[in-house]
Amino acid sequence: MTLRAVIKAGGSAGVDRDAVADLVADVARSDEIVLVHGASAETDRLAVDDVEVATSRIVSLGGRRRRPEGDFNEYGYSWRTMADPEGNEFCLIYEP
Predict the structure, then answer these.
(1) What is the pTM of this model?
(2) Residue 46: helix, strand or coil by DSSP?
(3) Would 52 be classed as within a structural domain?
(4) Are the C-beta atoms of 80 and 51 separated by less than 8 Å?
(5) Helix H or strand E segment including 78
(6) How high is the pLDDT of residue 15?
(7) CA 96 to CA 94: how far, in whole Å?
(8) Cα-flanking dihedrals φ and ψ of residue 92, to 5°?
């Protein structure tokens, strides 16, 4: 089986390709891979074990929290809304 990854990193201008490659390599070596099949709106979510570590890594790469005053908690799920350096939104999903 061949797996192909598509990484949404906003526009190509100003993207640090080495930083993206390092992040992908880190994820590939971990147990954090979640395979999702669906439309773009369904794939802008990433399940993480430690939301604080993930947030710190994203911020160190130029991202930011979209809602710094708090996370969402509904129906047994928690998620944190983040944005990449160009403002594209995605969510980190974690167990409360």
Answers:
(1) 0.56
(2) strand
(3) yes
(4) yes
(5) strand 77-83
(6) 67
(7) 6
(8) -100, 120
